[in-house]
Each structure stands twice: as structure tokens, then as C-alpha cells.
Amino acid sequence: MKQVQKLVILHTNDIHSHFEAMPRIATVMRKLRREHAGAGLVTVDGGDHMDRMRQETEASLGKANVAVMNEAGYDLAVPGNNEGLTLSKNDLEKAYSGARFEIIGSNLYESGTGRIPSWLKPYSILDRGGVRIGFIGVTAYFPAFYNLLGWDIQEPFGSIRHWLKEVRERADVVVLISHLGIAHDRRIAEEISGIDVILGAHTHHLLEEPLRIGGTAILAAGKWGQYVGCVEMEYDREAGALVKVEGRVYPTEGEAEEPGTVRTIDGYESSSRTVLQEPAAVLNRPLPIHWHEESELGNLLAAGLRSWVGAEIGLVNAGQLLEGLPKGTVTRGELHRICPSPINPCSVNLKGSDLLTALEESLLPEFTEKPIMGFGFRGKVLGALCVDGLQVDYDPDGEPYRKIRSVLVNGEPLDPARLYRTGMIDMFTFRVGYPTLAEGTEVRYFLPEFLRDLLAGLLLDEEALARAVPRRWRPSSSGKEA
After folding, report:
1. What CA–CA distance (Å, rounded) separates 468 from 449?
2. H helix runs in 52-179, sequence order
3. Hey, what's the torsion of the CAs at 200, 205, 210, 215, to 10 degrees?
4. Residues contacting residue 249 through CB under 8 Å, at least 6 positions apart
5. φ and ψ at residue 308, rounded to 5 degrees
6. Where is the 5'-Nucleotidase C-terminal domain (predicted)?
């Protein structure tokens, strides 16, 4: 037996259901497998392969992604927050039930049992040419959200330390698949010894060559399937140690599309159209949306948030809704198209002064036209605030932050010092969009409902539709009330 065993890991991360890239990913992987024939090879994904923005994922609840991963020949995957938080625990288990690869969730425990469920593994050890490669996989730590879905997610640093001792005893090489982000990966390399390679994800960072901290090499393949990462290692059996760790990324743009993957995606695209053609409601009038001012559809969603969480006030940014709805039959697919973001309702206690600041900013183009990336948002611009439970009188020609003349909360003047229970979207609590909305206290999130789920019910409620017509924002003219 030769003394040095070559090992290769192909890796992807944060593909976010960019199905158009998946056939090219499969082609690159096949080329690399041929190039490294004879090496001990493993193919892994670092999470957020799924994204319910895409109709194939939405209609199949992730099964389309798993089918494509099977086609590409993955060996291991770690669920990212887009898998773990946009699908119920049962739906996630169903999606992975068809996987021909192992799923690692080293810090995902069930709330009821206190154990990692049987369809997940705390770690995996794969034998490649007589060399044992141990894989630990951790996902981003969002306990407030995971707890609502029946998960008891563990703090990842503690989970890594817990499993590392056992894996290090059983494996020759240890690889951490981390859906935590580059800052956490650096900390892990600095603080936890015994990890040979970290394959990163979550923050969409691209490392074209390994970042080396101590004895750990950190690698990552960017986002959206634009690259496939390749780690090349050599393990010296006599020395019992890695003697080489190198890595690079291979662009997928311009590559041919692997035919089998194309056929799989085409099949799910066709079936998803059928599923999403199911009628959701019939409208007797169109419901418009305007990103820079209030509109009936935005008012409807704000009212729905207020009602859903049992609040005094409802708030949502108009940019959550990409289009209005026409008169006639509205399908599930149309609701998905106009409201694709995997964003959930929440409720907070919001100080009147913070609310007033956000309302003032809603009248400023630097906020309404602000592009937002990530944090669940799948729209284009932030948009103005659509509200419910409020009556806002303002002067369009007033100075910034001095445009609003009065605000009534359910008929009573806004008290800057008072706390108001407010129904809004989880994105605002991450200090995204209107910053003062993140100052709320006693935050409560509502999962697994998305905004489009609320809309589906609201479109069937004639009273709610009627209440969305009156204007909440009233412009004044020349300093006098209109």
C-alpha cells in the first residue's frame, strides 16, 4: 500500500435554488472526478441549497433540490438556515427522505426528545483508500426561530467541541462543514484545535485559495452555484498526518449543462407549475401595490400582520410585494411570485418615538429606494411603510424628519413615550430597512407562516379587503390639513 493517499473534497454552498446553475455544477463535478480518478473523493454541500423563492423548491418543499443533489452525486450535506427555518421539521425530513447522501446536523436536536433525529447524523466518518475522514456539520444559531419549529438548536462552538473529541479519536482527518459565516470560521480556527479543514458557508464568501489559521485551512465557494470548490489533500500513512492541503475554486459559468440534471429539473419545473396553478382566491377588483406609497394590497398585508399577532398596529414595507394582483382568479403561484420572501410575522413592543422616526424615514427616498440583500428579503427595494391602526398626516414638502404633523393610533394621539404592541416582519428586528423598528422589546416570532400565507387568507376575507381601501397616510397642502 502506498504511503501517501491523495484525498479530494468537492464542495458547494449557498446555492439558494439557483436551478439554472445546477446542471453546470454537475458538469464541473464530473470533470473533477475524472481529473482526480484514483483519489479518495468526497462531495459535500454546506447548506442553503434550498430557497423557497424558486417555484421548484416551493412546490416540492425541497424535494426538487434533493433530487438534483442525488443526480450530482453528493455524499454529505449540512442543512443551512434556509432549509432549517423555511421548512417545518416534518417537511424537512420528508424532503431528505429521498436523499442518497448523508445529512449532518451536529447542533440540531429535537425539542421533544433532546436527541438528534434519526434522519440526521451528529457526524460522519467516510473511508477513502483506508484513510478515515471525519465530518462535523453545524448550522447558524437562531434559537428563537428554531425553537418555534420544534428544534432545540445548540450553540455551535460547544457542539463542535463536544463531537470533535469523539471524531478525532475515530478519524485520521477532521473536516468541519460550517454554515456559520466567515467570522465564526476564523474564530473556530483560532480557538479550537484539531480541525484540519473548515468548509464555510452562510455569508456567501468566496475564498479562491485557502485561508490558513494555525493548523486549519478555511475554504468556501461563494454563492449561487457560481463556483465549485476543490480541496486536495495528501495523507502520509507512516507519519499519520496530512502533509498537504491545497484548494481552489472552479467557475461554472460557460460550462455545458449535464443532461441528466437538466431532465430532473425540467420534470420538477413542470410539476411545480401544476401544483402552483391551484386557485387561492377570486378577486372582484384589482389590488395594486406601489413601492413608494401606500396601496390597497400593502394596507391589506399590514392589517393582516396586525390581526395575526394580535397587535395595536401593523407595519410592512411595500417592497415585500413585487407586483399587484389583477381582478379574477389568483393562484398559489401568483402569490408566490409577488411575495417570494421567506419572511415571517412577528410582534414587538415599540416605543412611540421609534415608530415616529420610522414613519418619517418612510417619506424619504433614501429609505424607500434602498436595495436590500439577504435577511430573507427576495425583493428589489425596501419601499415605503404600509400601516394599519395608524392615521398619519404629513406635509410632503416638509423638511426631512419634520414632515409628519400628527399620528393617531386607533384614534388617539401617538405618545412618544408609550410602548405599542406592533405586528410587523421579522426582517425589521435584524436592523434591516428602518433601523428604529429593531429597538422593540418582547419580540415574538410566528413560524412557519410566511407573508404569502397570510395574504392567501386575507384575499378570502371581504371585510378585510374593504378595510384596506381607506388611506392611512394623508398629505396636507401648504401646511394645512387636506
Report:
1. 21
2. 55-60, 63-72, 81-84, 89-96, 143-146, 156-170
3. -50
4. 206, 207, 208, 221, 222, 227, 228, 229, 230
5. -60, -40
6. 291-426
DSSP helix/strand/coil, 284: coil
Answer yes or no: are the C-beta atoms of 206 and 222 closer than 8 Å: yes
CATH code of 278-475, in short, is: 3.90.780.10
Q: What count of residues does the chain have?
A: 482
Model confidence at 382: pLDDT above 50: yes
Cα–Cα distance, 55 to 52 (Å, whole number): 7
- All residues at 6 or more sequence positions from 366 whose CB lies less than 8 Å from its CB, including other chains: none
In which band, very low, low, confident or very high, does the pLDDT at 1 lie, cut at 50, 70 and 90? low
Dump pLDDT digits (tens) for 178-190: 999 999 999 999 9
Q: How far is CA 239 from the centre of its chain?
A: 43
| Cβ atoms of residues 107 and 153 within 8 Å | yes
**Integer CA distances (angstroms), 252 to 9, 14, 27, 257, 348, in order:** 17, 14, 8, 10, 44
Show me where the domains of the chain are located: 4-272, 278-475
CATH assignment, 4-272: 3.60.21.10
Amino acid at 383: G
Residue 258 CA from chain centroid, whole number? 27
